[in-house]
What we know:
- The chain contains eight helices and five strands, in the order H-E-E-H-E-H-H-E-E-H-H-H-H.
- The protein is globular and about 55 Å long.
- It has a five-stranded mixed sheet.
- It has one domain: Nucleotidyltransferase, domain 5 (2-Layer Sandwich), CATH 3.30.420.10.
- It is of the alpha/beta class.
- A hairpin with an 8-residue loop joins strand 1 (23-29) and strand 2 (38-45).
Amino acid sequence: MAPKSSLSWNFEQQSLxxxxxSVAGVDEAGRGCxxxxxxxxxxxxxxxxxxxxxxxxxxxxxxxxxxxxFQQIRSDSLIVWGVGIxxxxxxxxxxxxxxxxxxxxxxxxxxxxxPDIVLVDGSQKPKGLSSIQCIVKGDGLSPSIAAASIxxxxxxxxxxxQAEINYPGYGFSKHKGYGTVLHCKALQALGPCPxxxxxxxxxxxxxxxxxxx
Length: 213
């Protein structure tokens, strides 16, 4: 049974009523992880009439449904989308908040159509973007942000599944870089790999260098 949706075009329609002609939704994935990039996505619905069936906050969806929606959003000619990534190195050089903003700016820059206003999930405004409206829990309210949340989450999951191949033993395909018991045990046993965020305390406290066999 699909989770109940609270999506509506209210925020998009309010933006249009204010004179904006192109509205993008933006969201991120991987902000709280110990390893891997932070990934952001942006999405514009060219026609605000309907949205893909089962569209919702990515966290409320099964992986199977999310994968299907990921493909549907990317192939829909009426949805303009872009993805931006900030690497673990960029996260360590600045901080996770600034790296998240960087990924969001990159996602918007990848859009083939420039938005007049950006609806961002959460309460913090990314620097470097013009007109911004923050919407707390927006990924469950705005179809544009919900679509962006799925693009960001699924893109990042695919990156971390590839990381499982490049850096075996950490369980990246299971926990996707989050600080689970499995991940922390692997960190203690193997030490950090190049994908780990050295500025994050659980990683920074480990002196063991990574050695690839």
